[in-house]
Design goal:
By secondary structure, the chain is an alpha+beta fold. The protein has helices spanning 11-27, 53-65, 97-112, 137-145; strands spanning 2-8, 30-34, 39-47, 70-81, 86-93, 126-134, 149-155, 157-166, 169-179. It contains four helices and nine strands. The longest helix is centred in the first third of the chain and has 17 residues, at 11-27.
């Protein structure tokens, strides 16, 4: 099964992001696959055998038991690989970025012991669109420069999530929730 570890966003933030996507779509300046589910991925594990899940859960349980709850702010826009050549449009992290990075590093190190590859480049972000083409690069650059704040929330848990790929897009289901202290 295909799995990843993530921070789930509260419904109010999800609504704000969805409304923002709707506004961007109305501008008709880019085409792509718009994200319908919102979470901050801390570690993508890929295909995992079910017999390995218990080890993964134990590692995540140990990490969450020593990680304090923290505030996370979703703000700003960015693009991969760059603002001049946009292939992924994302929302960034303000307050809580450092705490989320430490959490990612702890998860990365813990799961590396189980044979998962350590990530070379990681930045906290929430993908909102996988871009196929941009019809107005100047307008998109202007939007990327805007100061947009989606809000803050308390990160009180991380989730191990299963991702089922379907023709209509991925379907996510939480396998286990790990509460932070």
């Amino acid at each position: 099964m295909r799995v990843f570890v993530a921070i789930e966003l509260p419904d109010e933030l999800k609504r704000k992001i969805s409304n923002f996507q709707r506004e961007l779509k109305k501008l008709d300046i880019l085409e792509g696959n718009w994200t319908k589910e919102y979470h901050l991925t801390l570690k993508f594990l890929g295909e995992v055998n079910e017999d390995k899940l218990k080890e993964i859960e134990k590692s995540l349980s140990d990490i969450s038991a020593k990680t304090k709850k923290f505030e996370l702010e979703m703000k700003g826009l960015g693009a991969f690989p760059s603002k001049d050549y946009v292939r992924v449009l994302w929302i960034g992290v303000g307050i809580g970025d450092e705490e989320a990075l430490v959490l990612h590093e702890d998860i990365d190190s813990g799961l590396e012991k189980l044979g998962f590859e350590k990530e070379k480049k990681y930045a906290n972000h929430l993908t909102i669109c996988r871009v196929k083409s941009v019809s107005d690069k100047k307008k998109l650059k202007e939007i990327l420069e805007r100061k947009i704040d989606f809000g803050k929330f308390e990160v009180a848990a991380i989730k191990l999530i299963k991702s089922d790929l379907t023709p209509a897009g991925p379907v996510y289901s939480a396998l286990k929730v790990f509460k932070l202290v």
